[in-house]
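Homework help board

Subject: predicted structure for assignment chain

Our instructor gave us this sequence and asked us to write out the predicted structure in token form, then describe one feature. I got the tokens but I'm not sure how to describe them. Can anyone check?
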Amino acid sequence: MSRVGKNPVNVPSGVEFNLTEALVSVKGKNGSLSMPLSKEVIVKAEGTQILVKPRSNSKQSRMMWGTTKKLIENLVVGVHTGFTKILEINGVGYRAAIQGNRLQLNLGFSHDVDVEIPSDLTVKCDKPTQITISGADRQRVGQFAAVIRSYKKPEPYKGKGIKYQDEVILRKEGKKK
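My token output:
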């Protein structure tokens, strides 16, 4: 029994949703998002709530029950408030800057790393060592943050590299003489 799927998705005021047999589309102040529905679940609207139920008692239906509920909730939260990831850059001379629609990273390589910023995301560099990524689609925000982090992952000895703001780097002790 899904503990996540049992709870309905509450739709706040200012967010419009449209349910069809195979698609959920949500529209709000941050844009509009849509998602195809699995044939394993039944999605119904009751007032300002969206209910998800499994179509049968099979293992696949029960798995998709909670997953579909959470994905619909992510759509609603995304168009209403949005999602944000904050990356921190640690290291001497490591910094980031915005150049038009590109993010320029100085990470100790012999060259700068230029990353194209997707049109549906907002990227800010309030400080040279902090990157804020925000957008309506949770998956796109997380994927872009992971791509940026992959250019210089934090290392365990000095902690140099790009890390998430809430990430804890387990430090190792260096070599002893």
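Reply (TA_rk): Your tokens look well-formed. For the description, you could write something like this. The chain is about 20% helix and 40% strand. That's the kind of observation they're looking for.
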